Fold these 2 entries.
Entry 1:
Amino acid sequence: QVQLVESGGGLVQAGGSLRLSCAASGRTFRLNTMGWFRQTPGMEREFVAAIGWSDSSTSYADSVKGRFTISRDNAKNTVSLQMTSLKPEDTAVYYCNVDRPGRDDYWGQGIQVTVSS
């Protein structure tokens, strides 16, 4: 059974940093694109960042570009999101994602990130 478990969320002041991690179990995803999405109440889940099987293939939402960095460790089956210069508008539940073209993606349970002003 595949599980994605996020950690590292919490409360931080504006301008601060947090590092989210996602540990995958049940199978390896070294050839899958992995990423992060976020969602606020009443809004659709939105893309934040993604990383291909090779660390050189990354993409970011414009709103986080230059502030967030996604990375992965295929040996440990983990993906991380380093978030810096956090803003109150970054407040959301963050979800780890494994892209599975042609199939339902895998999702984590979500973790709260709250940025106070």
Entry 2:
Amino acid sequence: QVQLVESGGGLVQAGDSLRLSCAASGRTFSTDFMEWFRQAPGKEREFVARIKWSGGSTYYADSVKGRFTISRDNAENTVYLQMSSLKPEDTAVYYCATRKSGQVDYWGQGTQVTVSS
């Protein structure tokens, strides 16, 4: 079992920055990737960013490439999403998740990010 708790969301203005955190507990050593997703009102949940738990390679959705940075602190079992140059279209509930053997197996409860214009 893995438990994921996101934090750091809030209300910001366009152009601002925000850092989300995802604290993981439980059998985190067994996961392959940590990922961030987001879901805007009335839309499907979409992939945002991924980091390999061992090695740290990263991958981003085109919509956030160059603005968002995913990182991890293995000692603290925490994954971060540094978001810069935020846009109103970044408004969503942001979720972290673990991926093992090609499947997302655990989700956090989500944290709301609202970007005003």
